[in-house]
## 1
Amino acid sequence: MFSKKPIPDSELKKILEAARFAPTPHNSQPFEIIVVKDEEVKRQLSEVGFRLNKKEVDEHFYWVRHTIEELETKKDGVYVDVLPKFVMDLQTNPKLVEDDEFWRKSMYLYSALIQNSQVLLFILYNQKRPGVGSLKHLWGIMSIGGVMQNIWLAANNLGISAQLVSGQLMNIESVRKIRKILHIPEKDYRLLLIFRLGYERKFGKSGTKYRRELSDFVHLDQFSNKIF
Ligand SMILES: Cc1cc2nc3c(=O)[nH]c(=O)nc-3n(C[C@H](O)[C@H](O)[C@H](O)COP(=O)(O)O)c2cc1C
């Protein structure tokens, strides 16, 4: 949860300037960003829940690591303690995935995250700024990754935390509701990312980072050769 300290517009502008300069194919800049600061709009967005089906829940658990030893060995996935309780409840009781009441209650937490954000950023892929060739959309969407990373780095550099909140985006009906609230035109603009921004009391105190070793994914000259 973030503190109540507001993000000054001057700081927000620096973050958006960083997004502006992200690399894109042919400098096509295929993105739009909706900044949400208004409390009523946040409230409406916070009421858009989501639910996962059994397959999606199983896909989540594939990446859950239950012990530090497992994390250290596999060097990927997310540690169980960062997950909200309702996600873990799904593991112990898989039948909950069908339970409307379970999802209604679980959405309190998600809703609080949205409402507690000082600023929300909705990043859209603008298909009216087309790239070239058969890979145009793939590259366009890739470049949204650059926008994402620039926002993250710029925010952190200013002592501001940025968290992606992707739950709603996995659900077609939820995305439809968000588009309606934000008046996103029906055609050509694809909602890809939602960031929540704010000041954290314990900024920079996040846990140890686990990542695959370089020797696991860097290859020398040919795929079969290790570099390190
Ligand atoms: C496309 C994308 C979606 C993500 N969605 C979420 C999310 O919904 N909630 C969240 O807390 N983190 C989300 N993350 C952050 C990742 O979980 C995080 O980067 C990863 O676990 C590694 O942790 P670290 O960045 O703290 O090292 C997302 C990251 C990416 C790139």
## 2
Amino acid sequence: MYPPISSAAEEAFRRCIRCGMCLPSCPTYVDTQAEVHSPRGRIQLFGALERGELEVSPLIAESFAYCLGCYACQTACPAGVPYRHILEEARDRIEKRYPNRLKRLLLRGLFPYPGRLRALARLLYWIDRSGLRRWAVRTGLLRSLAPGLARLEPQMPSLSRRFSRRLIEIRETPSGPSRGRVGFLLGCVMDVAFAETNRASVDLLRRAGFSVWTPERQTCCGALHGHNGDRQTAQRLARRTIEAFSAEPIQAVITNAAGCGAFMKHYAELLSDDPRWAERAREFQSRVRDLSQWLLECDFSGPFRPLPVRATYHDACHHVHAQGIAHQPRALLGRIPDLQLLPLEEATWCCGSAGIYSALRPEDAERFLERKLAHIRRSGAQWVITGNPGCILQLRYGIRRAGLAVEVYHYADVLRWALVP
Ligand code: SF4
Ligand code: SF4
């Protein structure tokens, strides 16, 4: 038995006027020219499910599994259809009918447990550094023992030697006159694969005049779960995140991961059916800020030293389409003397990373990545700058494989490097 449709999803369905203006901006529609793989088609399928005219079928499951969850359709929609509600609820239903074992293992067995994630990251780091990984690939051992893992191996990130907790104190003070106090979310992937970027983010906040508190008991924010049809776990993790950041007074909850920010900004809807948490969720959500958003709101301007590099900016979907963040990181980067920001064609088009999409559907993710790489090649940039861990990993993987002389960085790292000591 499925839970009743939420008022948010019902509203999203009701608002769609079937105009089709979202179609040209939908990567899966452009890829296939099939209505079933378009936002309009998916919204209609969801409606038919709700009216009981259709049962969850392999075709419906495939349609929603193929969707990147990039929300480019939301940006394009003149009627303001919040498609994300449809996607999240459809996936929740589909997952109950056709459970995906890999997805379940990642979402329920790994991400909610920071200890397990760190233990796995430590093991992978050791396997990588010892040369075991290269050896297992070269000899074909990995392919014969675990073909599924062999397929994912090239995308495996290089992990940080030390995780965020070793680099960041629980409470840090501003490096100049104080302007207040903020909380900082370490994130799951950011913690184990981009600990240095987390350090850079805290440095920027301190230089902007803020005390930074990174609560000890913080956990995964639930974004991957919410986007992938595990609403119940997402709700549990949202409650834990709110609780973790409630223990001390702060002005804002800062994240440097677009996916986490986009999700935490919707906690109110996620917990709207829970009378004990709805109000707390609304209050929490109102304080969530992307790092770039916060720094620009505070008019942070360094000072920065010159960085003579030709760079371009790739918009993470969960920045530009889910939060409307596009101007903020560019404006901050624009304050670095000599950093040339070149235009990137289709900068707001998904790179194929899409949370765990590239692990679940590597062939499809490859096609979207190829399209992005072609534009990066043409841009003439030496650096690609972006604001989401998934995009960085996906772009680095594609660029390495294509042999391009291009580096990919988080905007927080670039801003930090440019800071005058
Ligand atoms: S989602 Fe928006 S743009 Fe797409 S068909 Fe519906 S109303 Fe039109
Ligand atoms: S989220 Fe992205 S892939 Fe999915 S329907 Fe919307 S535009 Fe298409």
